[in-house]
Amino acid sequence: MRIRVVNPNTTESMTALIEANARAVTGPGVTLDAVTSTMGPASIESHYDEALAVPGLLAAITAGERDGADGYVVACFGDPGLDAARELTDAPVIGIAEAAMHAATLVGRGFSVVTTLARTRGRAWDLAARYTPAGACRGVHACDIPVLALENDPTVRRRVVDLARRALATDGSDVIVLGCAGMAGLCAAATAELGVPVIDGVAAATVLVQALLTLKVGTSGHGEYAPPPPKPYIGLLEVFNRTK
Amino acid sequence: MRIRVVNPNTTESMTALIEANARAVTGPGVTLDAVTSTMGPASIESHYDEALAVPGLLAAITAGERDGADGYVVACFGDPGLDAARELTDAPVIGIAEAAMHAATLVGRGFSVVTTLARTRGRAWDLAARYTPAGACRGVHACDIPVLALENDPTVRRRVVDLARRALATDGSDVIVLGCAGMAGLCAAATAELGVPVIDGVAAATVLVQALLTLKVGTSGHGEYAPPPPKPYIGLLEVFNRTK
Amino acid sequence: MRIRVVNPNTTESMTALIEANARAVTGPGVTLDAVTSTMGPASIESHYDEALAVPGLLAAITAGERDGADGYVVACFGDPGLDAARELTDAPVIGIAEAAMHAATLVGRGFSVVTTLARTRGRAWDLAARYTPAGACRGVHACDIPVLALENDPTVRRRVVDLARRALATDGSDVIVLGCAGMAGLCAAATAELGVPVIDGVAAATVLVQALLTLKVGTSGHGEYAPPPPKPYIGLLEVFNRTK
Amino acid sequence: MRIRVVNPNTTESMTALIEANARAVTGPGVTLDAVTSTMGPASIESHYDEALAVPGLLAAITAGERDGADGYVVACFGDPGLDAARELTDAPVIGIAEAAMHAATLVGRGFSVVTTLARTRGRAWDLAARYTPAGACRGVHACDIPVLALENDPTVRRRVVDLARRALATDGSDVIVLGCAGMAGLCAAATAELGVPVIDGVAAATVLVQALLTLKVGTSGHGEYAPPPPKPYIGLLEVFNRTK
Amino acid sequence: MRIRVVNPNTTESMTALIEANARAVTGPGVTLDAVTSTMGPASIESHYDEALAVPGLLAAITAGERDGADGYVVACFGDPGLDAARELTDAPVIGIAEAAMHAATLVGRGFSVVTTLARTRGRAWDLAARYTPAGACRGVHACDIPVLALENDPTVRRRVVDLARRALATDGSDVIVLGCAGMAGLCAAATAELGVPVIDGVAAATVLVQALLTLKVGTSGHGEYAPPPPKPYIGLLEVFNRTK
Amino acid sequence: MRIRVVNPNTTESMTALIEANARAVTGPGVTLDAVTSTMGPASIESHYDEALAVPGLLAAITAGERDGADGYVVACFGDPGLDAARELTDAPVIGIAEAAMHAATLVGRGFSVVTTLARTRGRAWDLAARYTPAGACRGVHACDIPVLALENDPTVRRRVVDLARRALATDGSDVIVLGCAGMAGLCAAATAELGVPVIDGVAAATVLVQALLTLKVGTSGHGEYAPPPPKPYIGLLEVFNRTK
């Protein structure tokens, strides 16, 4: 099985981090490659960034279909473009917020999300409402570290762990969800310090895609996720024209 | 006050129809212009189309800000890119599904949506969940006429009205929402035939933007809709780079 | 177009305030008159007051129908008698809580209500549940100033603004809704001080009624809001008998 | 213990029916009297009727307080004025829709309401949303017999039972709630014919008031249901002035 | 009428307390007996305890049916085995959390639960979601006293009352629900100290069973609560085999 | 990794079927064993059966802990005893309804459940409400074939597939969930015939447990799922006493 992990932002170093974390949970017989979006924002920290990360994601899915990918991970915690991506393929396509929230509800009664900038909390709540029943997500907390600073700031681990510890107490939660692909590297240390399951969405999505492929279950093409009707595309986005 | 109506698809004839319907409800002292997206799909009938209509919409909002627009209508019933658009401006930005659903709940107890292709019903339900309390939207019904066929097919009015009549009975609803900007021209005739309020989102959004401007109330820039943090954009979408 | 604004309490000075705020947002060609209820409580601060404000409201609507009014504003934040009023007319009838909450959701992600007495918070929550999806109303806060003291107490503005500022922080909201018709005069100053949209329901309802009238959309008479079946009324309320 | 059953419409013959059904479930040591509202509509079949039944109900509660009543039943399925009534007393006040829906959820998994006119279904759904968790009320069905015709029409039992039987099948429900005080007399026969619990709200409310009185639990006066602040009342409703 | 109160834990002294509190609200002509489960945990403080209290409860219901009981109270706040018990009988079966929460919503706008161990709060929330509409239960608070210590610890009353007082303020609630059968003895004192209704589920369930019996309404045998299909049972639980 | 699949009913032949379906999706390096409950009902078709299947399940989990199991599948679609089981172990414990519903929401927009007896539909709806957001489960349909007849009845496949096809059309769903462990063998054929993803919970739970183990994420022991407090157990269930 061939799994393609798409980093929807355009920062290569973040793709490398994502790939390492995905590869760590890749089983035998699985080929995994990670690709960086070729167009759009260097990081995704606003609705504007997220909307403009979607074309690059869709291009990566279309390329993946050509290359014979069997499943996809969308490696940004805002899960950009998931519905559109699912129209392009019968393969499973899993977002990392989706994966992390599903995993969290399988091992605890309520989770807290620890994310980057405060302005992204609304998106996390929207996704929780989409993926989980009311009450499962008990809080979304921002450490106010920009996405690209996660890599280099030596205080990140301490600040994220401290924030998570307060979230567990305040929210009465029993699982932590890391709210950014760039936090993937903190997962093991945070688990050890906090004594509760800490879920990194990159790894979670990677194992879920493998799980679905093992089940031989892919995205339903019946109804809403059928291939989009072909039609003219013009201007800058002419390349997204689909003839079939 | 200057209102800009953005048609997020790239079909000029549809913009003309939209403009006519918006202009019909424009008050004295209001300047209205309608613009067609310069990039993306000719019509929006899938999540793929909708995602790829967003860059053109955002470009139109950015241009509108340069041109001194005071308010915006997003004239596609999927309300593409609304959150992102709101980050770009302090002016009100109203989607036509949003406007139609709000108006519907002000004049009745429950509405039915009559839309184009069956595959878009899920999006209409998602928007109803976002804008209205549970129970307000009582049904979403598709006439299975493609968006661009609405203009030329002489049977459209009959089929839409018949579908709406069945929806009122089946759903126990008392208001009809037209689920596509391309249906705007049917509004008066459908109202006359059905004897219930029939809401066209283009007109509804146009009057709501005027209402908000009269109130001197625009999009909140506090928190989630603050201007997006600037950062590098690359590739095809490099033009979306914002320096401020 | 003729819009009648009904103050459902019996305090004339409050009607004058309401009228001034409604008139400030009235467009050209609109005739607006404000009437004071002729029966019932001097202010509405309990379920008892609210229930007993409804007959006066309904009498005002019936009089408005005789006088040829085209639309109605119900100018008390408890939105008393809205369903009953809608049965009496095909014109739009908008409550000020309804209008303010709708407007708030069009310009932000979540609003806080700042109201008068603590005992009215439950009603505000009930109305938020009726008008808006879960999560839109993020808090209801009482300044504990009685309705009729709003006019004369020089500390009102300061207390309301301070409470609103705390509400924005506590609730993570980005819009303020003023929870009493008697606060209408504070709107501009509070907007300036807080830097977020502050919505006064009187003005909001007035512009929404105009918006609906421009759309030529009135209350649906199909089903629940059809005219009430005529029948004998006796005793003190005999005057509410309707022969048609 | 003294229980007062208030018929909020002004039809004496209906009060007699209500009283008989309440008395049938009155325990030893309980004094029960039934009173007819002295003002307002002969029957309650619209929001207008319901709103104008409330003053008579509140007058009856106030009289009950003078007379030393220990608990109240509000005997109309629309549960008019419940919140306002509760402000006037520390005694329990139970509506018949409230009682019937509570009882129904104690003995089955989901109930169907069988009511009179189609236009009242919306009110029944609103009450179900107020009293029961989502999913408990599985359908509201109208037999389209006016309230006051229930007494005299010999086909009523057959039509109500047939409608209830279809409701059980359509809704997948296991309990029937009779949606009008005027249907109280049908309860035993319908139970026998249908083989499922059939709940009459008049009897249900009467036993629930007794249950609460036995518990020595009355309406909470802490917060929202504290006595309403006294203030001037004028005009036709001047008699509702409260000095305390 | 014969009511059987089942203590699903195996501690006789707790049964005695429960019986005393049930008997205090038993009307004339009612025979009440309280039985202790003959198998399982000494107290119920975990999901494990609760699951293993169910067989003893079901055995007690089956014995009750042989003995001619007319109604049942399940006297543990976790309401163990309610659905299963209802399949075994046409008599009403009421859990004490169910009864307390229903009673609480009849006399106030929102209740707080005061319970024993923090780990049981999730169960209380689950039950609130099952029995009451969203918003009725406003908080669940643990005093962290083990169930069997309630009897002997002289500080219990003070700690529970203090916790309840804080809950009323924090939650904005107006009724207290005692979250353990072992707290039944505190009800009168807590009511007196707090000045709000304090509901003990044991008494509440006892009066509700009597209320339903007076209504001649029992558990619906139509559909989900029909008698379970007979089949072989083996091993330790062979005695639960049912031939009918 | 060692995964233990527990069949909570006592029918060995059904365990063999379950084991075969679990083994088909077991990866390299995974040891899987399937055990049959040693006490309780031969099949689970009522709340009574389900409640009495829980002790056997808990005994199997306790045995699994002694034997060093790393993860558990609970192979009955009612997901009996999941909360209690999770208190006994830090390993992941996944129910097959839980797994199937999670998988279904990852590959489609809405699923229909096809189950055995009509009386079990309520349980399926309860589980859907627990695991998935509102709207994900669009229908639960019963083929009215008893659990143990699934193995031998040659018409089963046809009836289940036909029912599923009707469910897709009626519910507007795009995924089918098989609502009984005994239907696991139908999965491949149903997928081929229906052209949509068909999810068997046994396989789904098996891959999800492997996924969680690969993530090194187990059940949270923080809070509600901490080990149950030890205490005396008596009678038939004395063996469930835990000393730690």
Automatic annotation (TrEMBL), chains A, B, C, D, E, F:
InterPro entries attached to this UniProt entry: Asp/Glu/hydantoin_racemase (IPR015942), Hydantoin_racemase-like (IPR052186), Iso_Racemase_Enz_sf (IPR053714)
Residue stretches in coiled coil: none
GO molecular-function term, one example from the UniProt record: amino-acid racemase activity
One Pfam match: Asp_Glu_race
Assigned protein family: Belongs to the HyuE racemase family.
This protein's name: Asp/Glu racemase
Species per Swiss-Prot/TrEMBL record: Paractinoplanes ferrugineus
